[in-house]
Amino acid sequence: MEEVLDLYATPYNPLRPKVNFDESSKQLIKETRLPLPAQPDQPERYDYQYERNGVRNIFMMVEPQAGWRHVVVTEHHAKPDFAHQMKWLVDERYPQAEVIEVVLDNLCTHTAASLYETFDPADARRILRKINFHYTPKHGSWLNMAEIELSVLQRQCLDRRIPDQETLEREIAVWEQRRNDQKSTIDWRFSLDDARSTLKRLY
Fold first, then answer.
1. Which terminus has fewer CB within 10 Å in the chain: N or C?
2. DSSP assignment letter at 137
3. Which helix (H) or strand (E) element contains residue 114?
4. What is the DSSP letter of 130?
5. Residues 19 and 89: beta-carbon distance below 8 Å
6. Are 140 and 202 in contact (CB under 8 A)?
7. Whole-angstrom Cα distance, residue 159 to residue 163?
């Protein structure tokens, strides 16, 4: 925990971006009947019947100090999916960075081994040289600011029935663009001193 809080307290450095990474899922639901449109004093109404259309994985990457986030929808959340997100961070998003400080939880796919299983050893090592993983403690995933951004995404974009992956990707892209245009940041206030006073029973 202290390692993550120490990292959050360091000043912004574009050559050492701090990126929070997390994932969630979304159940795709098709309507079996068209909803009744909204009318004065009457919200849009949906039939209770629906058709399940699979589940999609959502990867969230957010750099809170820069007011930037990126969301990727995938069919799976296996080791190769994670590895490709790390490669994208290194090669596409931060090619000029000295190192990328990545905060993430202890999910079994979130390891260096995932990159070695996905890419050839030389490429995996090249990517990992530019990434420092900082894991939140067990039962401490709330320390990952990507959870906050996923909550915002859920409330502002995903709190309704979405029928297919194409619609999901389109809606998320609009949300992401708006949030990035606004440079929406996260006001993190939980400090190392707070941890030592309020969570001293855990020390």
1. C
2. P
3. helix 112-118
4. T
5. yes
6. no
7. 13
Residue 78: how many CB atoms within 10 A of its CB? 14
What six digits make up the tokens of 50?
């629906």
Rounded distance, CA 56 to CA 77, Å? 9
Q: Which of 131, 138, 132, 147 is nearest to 190 (CA)?
A: 147
* 18 bridge partner residues: 101
Q: How many CB atoms lie within 10 A of CB 39?
A: 9
Q: DSSP secondary-structure letter at 42?
A: B
Tokens of 187: 């006001």
pTM for the complete prediction? 0.87
Please, are residues 61 and 195 in contact by the beta-carbon 8 Å criterion? no
Q: What is d(CA 116, CA 21) in angstroms, rounded to the nearest whole number?
A: 19
CB atoms within 10 A of CB 188: 15
At 111, phi and psi to the nearest 5? Answer: -140, 160
- Which residue carries 């019947």 as its tokens? 49
Q: Read off the pLDDT of residues 51-103 as tens digits, 9 standing for 90 and up.
A: 777 999 999 999 999 999 999 999 999 999 999 999 999 999 999 999 999 99
Tokens standing for 164?
């297919």
